[in-house]
Specification:
The protein contains five helices and no strands. The protein folds into two domains: about 50 residues; about 80 residues, no CATH class. By secondary structure, the chain is mainly α.
């Protein structure tokens, strides 16, 4: 196979991935998954027992719900929405990197001040990072939509 055909095929796959959006009604499904899993996580805090496996699964469902909301189309999906999505993704990525770099240091300094005997430097978990990125994206996209409406 020629090199140009391989490159064209890869570019088509990449374009499909970049342009992939779920229909608008999936937003409701994503919000429902997010709300239900979040409520169940909170509920497990009030119940006695070891729910670590269930909480882990519910955290994944929470992230899935957020992802579905993020990749669902708006009711009117046009070039402006694509532009706003790009800006929101850029903003959330930059803020996310800063958060990952600074937050462990802040956590450590707070522990040094409040509980010096328990002070440890720990990195953030994957759930916390992904949750933060998706929430920052949704917030930035919402503000950009309101400003341009």
């Amino acid at each position: 196979m020629k090199k140009s055909k391989i490159c064209d095929a890869e570019e088509l796959r990449l374009q499909w991935l970049v342009n992939f959006k779920l229909p608008n009604y999936w937003k409701k499904i994503g919000w429902a998954l997010l709300s239900l899993s979040f409520a169940l996580i909170i509920l497990t805090k009030f119940l006695d027992g070891d729910f670590s496996v269930i909480i882990s699964i519910l955290k994944k469902i929470t992230l899935l719900g957020l992802l579905i909301v993020v990749i669902s189309k708006e009711k009117i999906e046009d070039e402006l929405m694509e532009n706003l999505r790009g800006k929101a993704f850029s903003f959330s990525f930059i803020i996310g990197v800063v958060y990952v770099l600074v937050q462990p240091l802040i956590n450590y300094l707070v522990f040094v001040i409040l509980k010096p005997q328990k002070a440890r430097f720990e990195d953030l978990g994957d759930f916390q990072i992904l949750w933060f990125l998706l929430i920052v994206y949704l917030t930035a996209f919402w503000f950009l939509k309101r400003r341009n409406a």
